[in-house]
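Quick one from the shared queue. A colleague (R.T.) flagged DNA protecting protein DprA as missing a structural entry in our internal table.

Convert sequence to structure tokens.
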Amino acid sequence: MADPALTAWLRLTLVPGVGPETQRHLLAAFGLPEQVFSAPRSALKQVVGKKADLLLDTDNQEAVARALDWAGKPGNRILTLADPDYPQLLLESADPPSLLYVKGRVELLNRPALAIVGSRNATPQGLKDAEALAADLAAQGLTIVSGLALGIDGAAHRGGLKGEGGSVAVIGTGADRIYPSRHKELALQLATEGAIVSEFPLGTPAVAHNFPRRNRIIAGMAKGCLVVEAALESGSLITARLAAELGREVFAIPGSIHSPVAKGCHRLIQQGAKLVQEARDIVEEIGPFDPPGCKPARTPLSTGNTPTTPPILDPGQAAVLDALGHDPANLDQLLQRTGLTTEALCAILVTLELADRVASLPGGRYQRLSPT
């Protein structure tokens, strides 16, 4: 038998045209959803005007039944504002969703968490940094929260799933959909080993304006927000701003002054975000937390969980890395800097790529990678 309280919550939130703000007005005036629906139409109209007719006259029984059926399947939950498992930090925000659709480990929603966000068009080094740092922090018990987007988000989730803290994805579609499709396997892993969270009704497609909206949940669930790479117009800066408005810590990883995906991070640092070079920089700010087996964070960026000695380079490889420096460079620039022939330089670059010391970028450019 369906839970009447959850049924009432679903009836309230699945009425088209009755959004979160209207829902909050009704809950503030009448109490729980069951009391909202038992109130006279005239009383409802005094609070929300003509939207009272939408509330009382809309037949959403099919959508409610579909949601209840979804919630009854193993691994699925629907959390309401009144549920003790609802993320408590999120309640401190100005606009907490009335309910959340959750797949996976609900207990992760109330563990100490860090949001990690960044560019969808991340550099190879940025992806390595995000995954390594997320893995370091998750190994110490921090849950990694991100948005399942391509680029930095995906890398952060993969790192978080490697550690005890796990990872939570806040998505901009219904919880029964996977977007982007390239993250299907990652989403399935999150649904079993981590968690997937959505405020949107089942079946909601990937609509552009939903993604900035989900950012407030990412910021609200975490004790801090780390931006790994971001252009000046990046949506990641919205998440960082929302975190700052909630009084949460904001962190950023610096990059090359020539890199467009570093400019957003540099602006955050100029505005007061803490510059991050290793996991300890974050733990020192958002602590104390004392998860089981926690150890001090000392691993620098890009080293992963177990430091290893990088392979020894021959003189030619070392010379090309020195010529490359830490900013992307094209083949002509490297030819000029090294004095090598095109054939010799290309052979060395291939060897360095295979050794994971250099990555090729769009436009025929190359970027140096930190050794792992």
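Residues 292-300, 302-309 have pLDDT under 50 and may be disordered.
The domain at 1-72 is CATH 1.10.150 (DNA polymerase; domain 1).
Added to the table.
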